[in-house]
Amino acid sequence: MKQITIHTASKTYDVKIGVEMTNEIVSFIKKSFPQVSKLWIIADKEVYNLHGTAFSEILSRTYDVTTYLAPKGEQAKSFAIYEDAINHGLSNHIDRGALVIAFGGGAIGDLAGFVASTYMRGIPFMGVPTTILAHDSAVGGKVAINHPLGKNMVGQFYQPEGVFFDLDYMTTLPKTEVLSGFSEVIKHAFLSDRAFLQELMDNFHSPEQLDHVFLTDCLMKGIRVKGNIVAKDERESNIRAFLNFGHTYGHAVESASGYGNRTHGESVMIGMIFALYLSEQYCDLTFDLQGFIDWVASLGYNLNIPSHITFDNLYEGMKLDKKSQHGNPVFVLLKDIGKPLMMKVSVEDLRRADQFIRVFN
Ligand code: NAD
Ligand code: ZN
Predict the structure, then answer these.
(1) How many CB atoms are located within 10 Å of the residue 217 CB?
(2) Which residues are registered as beta bridge partners of 125?
(3) In a mutational test of the pocket of ligand 1, which residue from 132, 133, 269 has the highest number of ligand atoms less than 8 Å from its CB?
(4) Gap from CA of 180 to ligand 2 centroid (Å)
(5) What family classification does the UniProt entry report for this protein (predicted)?
(6) Residue 202 contacts by C-beta under 8 Å, 6 or more apart in sequence?
(7) What three-state secondary structure class fits 150?
(8) Domain 185-359 architecture
């Protein structure tokens, strides 16, 4: 088992990565919450069907366990499901001595964290993430649900008590979700150093063949990069915004495609290529962009933006980005791998980068 300690201004906690982690989780709860009244598992229904029975069976040997099953993925992050989860807690006598366990991907982490942060003014929660992408969402303490007018519009900063990755769960991830998660690992490499990026390019050849040693190494390094940034800036007042690398154009592509039609990570991959092109043009980045594009295309990322999604559609989306200043999109670009900076980019330059993205497909 591997372990990283995350330090933030409001809390210090450990992220553990290994196999057969449930007994480890029981030991952690015994030590950290000796008086816990109940465990309240908030789970993605699909994930629970695959892995939940064994998980709650082991916990039930020691604890009183109540399980709330939310619809899979992004559907969990609605006001209606949030209310339903609170109803479930109240009617099952979840009290202030309970501990919430998020069991699923990033969406469940966001829902369960938000429920925990507001239930009776806040009860503790821990994460058992089941996707690779959740190496990103499980660290940093952002929890949220969606509003019909925007994703993650209602939320808080609320840190977990601990995070336990069980690699056994990742074996059932569909290929599209493996690629989605790896995109954020690749993003963390761009924000870190060339050696990490090169290691990924040398060793990641197929989303269908992931060995535990390689996956553990990727999760550890990605978590370390994110952990170092949030340690310095928990509430995104400055450098935490670098984690948005690839997300300005990426979010615009994701939302124009209709949420659920393209994974978050694949959209971010397109956004990173867009930002790398701009970085070469305006920040003197030296990088083999074509070699990178060939590699990610060979892995199975679909980089094609359908022609009905126009630059103007995407530009409207980019202007909505939280980093925008006076309605002008601001981008995270790289002057070198591991050296991000923020930059305003003119609409003409954005149009040029958009043409580049469309031409290589
Ligand atoms: P997800 O939670 O939506 O899960 C994606 C799909 O994979 C779902 O259909 C789910 O049922 C399935 N799944 C999950 N684990 C599985 C497993 N082990 N085997 C088989 N299927 C499995 O997706 P995600 O990509 O993990 O997370 C995306 C969410 O995370 C978004 O809502 C995003 O906003 C959020 N996010 C939050 C932060 C943060 O800092 N809070 C950061 C990044 C992303
Ligand atoms: Zn992301």
Answers:
(1) 18
(2) 100
(3) 133
(4) 9
(5) Belongs to the sugar phosphate cyclases superfamily. Dehydroquinate synthase family.
(6) none
(7) strand
(8) Up-down Bundle (1.20)
Nearest ligand for residue 136 CA? 1
Phi and psi for 172 in degrees, rounded to 5?
-95, 5
Using the predicted structure, report yes or no on whether residue 172 has a pLDDT greater than 80: yes
* Cβ atoms within 10 Å of 259's Cβ, excluding its own: 13
105 lines ligand 1 (CB under 6 A): yes
Residue 220 DSSP one-character state = H
Residue bearing the CA closest to ligand 1, atom 31:
107
Domain ranges of the chain: 2-172, 185-359
pLDDT in tens, 41-84: 999 999 999 999 999 999 999 999 999 999 999 999 999 999 99
Is 122 labelled a binding residue?
no
State the chain's mean pLDDT as an integer: 95
229 is in an annotated binding site: no
Alpha helices of the chain — where are they, by DSSP H?
Answer: 22-32, 45-47, 53-60, 79-91, 106-118, 134-137, 167-170, 175-190, 194-203, 212-232, 247-257, 264-282, 289-299, 311-319, 347-359
> Residue 102: nearest ligand to its CA?
1
CATH class of 2-172: alpha beta
DSSP lists the bridge partners of residue 161 as: none
User: Which two tokens mark 112?
Assistant: 């369960």
pLDDT-based confidence at residue 234 (cuts at 50, 70, 90): confident
Q: How far is residue 114's CA from residue 7's CA, in Å, rounded to a whole number?
A: 20
- Among all ligands shown, which has an atom nearest to the Cα of 150? 1
- Is there a contact between 109 and 143 (Cβ–Cβ < 8 Å)? yes
CA gap 25, 29 in Å, rounded: 6
pLDDT digits (tens, 9 = 90+) for 84-139: 999 999 999 999 999 999 999 999 999 999 999 999 999 999 999 999 999 998 89
Say if residue 78 is exposed, middle or buried (CB neighbours under 10 Å; 0-12, 13-18, 19+).
Answer: middle
Residue 131 annotated as lining a ligand binding site = yes
| DSSP letter (8 states) at residue 51 | I
